[in-house]
Structures are given as structure tokens and as C-alpha cells.
Amino acid sequence: MQDSSVSRRKFIQTTALGTAALGLPTLIPSSAFGANDRLRVAVIGINGRGQDHISGFSKLENVEVATLCDVDNVVLQKSATEFETKYKRKVKTEQDLRRVYEDKDIDAVSIATPNHWHALATIWACQAGKDVYVEKPACHNLFEGRKLVEAANKYNRIVQHGVQLRSSVAIQEAIKHLRDGLIGKVYMARGTVYKWRPDIGNLGNSPVPDGLNWDLWQGPAQTRPFSKNYVHYNWHWFWDYGNGDIGNQGIHETDLCMWGLDVGLPEVITSAGGKFLWNDCKETPEVLTSTYHYPKQGKVIQFEVRPWMTNKEDGVEVGNIFYGDKGYMVINGYADYKTYLGRNREPGPARNAGGDHYKNFVDAVRARDKKLLNGPIETGHLASSLAHLGNISYRLGRTLHFDPQKEVFVNDKEANAMLTRKYRAPYLVPTTV
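The line above is the sequence of Twin-arginine translocation signal domain-containing protein; the predicted C-alpha cells follow.
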């Protein structure tokens, strides 16, 4: 948004009031009031979560989804047609996000690409003067997360991490209960991700489909032949593009574990798991058990990823459980919590209430105030990094020791090499933003 929009709006309003005072009919349509501070948003990546971004921003007052962007032109044009049918207006389309960043009329971008694009897309947006709502995980590795924080600060941009539970009224209340000692000393958080993840087979390589810019889709990753196993969802299960389920659905839960325990990154990480069900081409584990230890704080995080058939934990398939010396708290999904107190597990406070994470972002953008954000990029870096640390421990097959202040492993060159990746020109995440 331009600063001059405020003065233009005041001029229109003053003129309209003056005309009314003279008893003459106004010639200014009501839709013009506030039009100059209309927030124009581009949604980048529209095949999955991007559809929710389109819907979420379109519901907000004085916010316009002005551009849709996707590397798959077939998906792009189909979505544009559906958009125009639903909202009764045209929308601009772009296949290359760089063209979006060149558009001076775009105020903010909403990023729902595959994981390996999140950081670079956000950094480029910050450099172009755009505010950013970025899907989870905020980054594909720890190095990228730190660069995101630096870019948001350097370019003074509003950057929201897409973990909507942070805007839930119920979850905010639950966190306050934890801080106020409702369940006593909170020493452990458990995150669970029990999702239906079937066999994806092995489709092998095949020609790139018409309309898909495969080079742009791969972006920062090293070049691979095209496979239908990657596009448009199962890229989650390949290390070049995704981070497994702990780095997919699990980011909501890693974020809440850290928020509820009031901790940063851990000092000791142990992970184990593997593929036990399907003989398919997934690279990431189907089952993963990770433990994150905070010896100085006397706290621990346990995290479980399981597929297919499994039990629930106190009704939870995807959620969190916090344990204290006076009770425990169960958080189911994004907007529901229950508490159980004492040895008899007497029901305590409970609530189910959501919130609007998109509106929270827009409110912060309008106020130019990062402190209004419920999911600032710093929390995105931490929540994503917790998942990445667990994955590194799993891939190396051993317990790791980490320095949370320096954000490096202790005397471990092999593990430290996995804090970043080899990037492919021209899609380079800059070491200096």
C-alpha cells in the first residue's frame, strides 16, 4: 500500500462531506470509499493449500485477490476460470512468480508452493517490497529459516507463518492456562500426526506434461527427470522437495509444542523410524519417533508420526498433549482443548473456538506492526527447524547435540552439512539477504 493512499482517501471523504453539506447529490459511488487502501494480494501456488488462501483472503473486507500464480498453466487457467465464476470478476494470471514481484500494484503475496520454494519465494518477495503470508513449513532447512528472519527484518516486511492454530481463540486461552500453572509445572509436550498416507507406488520417469514449467517447479532443488510421483502432492515424501509428515502436517504440532512449553530449539535430538508398510518410492519415513531434550530447562518434546491404522491418544489423531505435575492438557486439531486435573483426571477448563489467521496478517499489514502477528516468521523458523533437526537425526541414525544459540551441531561436520543444501542457479537462497 502507498502512503499517499491515506491522503487521497481523506480528500475524497472531505469532498463528499462538503457536497452533502451543500444539499447536492454526491457523484462518488459508495464503493470508492476506502478503495485507495485496498490490499491487493497475489496467491502463489494454487493447487492445494493455495485454494484455502484464495478463499480466506477473498472473504476479508477491502482485500482483493488480484493475481493467481502457478507453474502449471493447466491448473492456473482452471483455477482462474473457477475464480471468475465464483467471484464474478477477472483475475490476473502469471506462471512465473518473478513477474508477480515486478507488479507494483501487488501489496502482499501468499505462498503455497511446495516446501523447497517457501524460503526463496519469501525472500524475493521481501526484497521486492511485498508483505508475505507463507505456508508451513516456513523453510526447507535451518539455513533458510535464519535467512527468512533476516530478510523480514532488513526489508521491514510483515511476514506471517501459516499455522492457523496461533490465531485460534481457544488455543490462545489454552496457552495462557499453561503459563498460569493450571496443570502445574509443564515438563513435557507430545505432538502426534496420525494421517492416512497410502502406498504411492513407483510411477518412474515420464515426459513433462503440457503446461508445466518443470525447471521453475524444481527451482532451488537439483535437476531431476519428471515423475508423476512428485506432482502435485507426493513431493512431500522426497527430500529434495518435502520434509516428510513431521515437516508437513507436523509443523502445526511442532510449533504448538514449543509455544506451550515456552522453549526454543533443543540441545539433544534423537529420532528413529522407517518404512514398514509400503514398498513404494517414498524417501521419507512412514513412521518417525523423535525426542527433543532441553536439559537446562528440565523439559522434553516427544513427537510421533504414524500412517494408516492406529489408535487415537485421548481422542487425538493430529494434535498435542501437555503434561504437568497437576494434570494434563489435550489439544485436538487447531481449535479445541480440554484439561484433566489431579490423579483422578477431573475435567477442567475446555473450549472450542477458532480464529482468522488471514485477517490477523492483514491487520498487521495495515497497521505496519509486526507485533500484531500471531505467527511471526521467527516462530516459523523455530517450528520448522525442530522438524528439520528430527529429520537429520533420523537420516544420520544417531543422537545429535545442538547449540541452540549458534544454531549449529556441536563438533559434527556431517550433521552441520545437512543444515543447508546445494542450490541451483538462478534459484539461489542468498547467504546475505
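Note on the example: DSSP finds twelve helices and 16 strands in the chain. Residues 1-35 have pLDDT under 50 and may be disordered.
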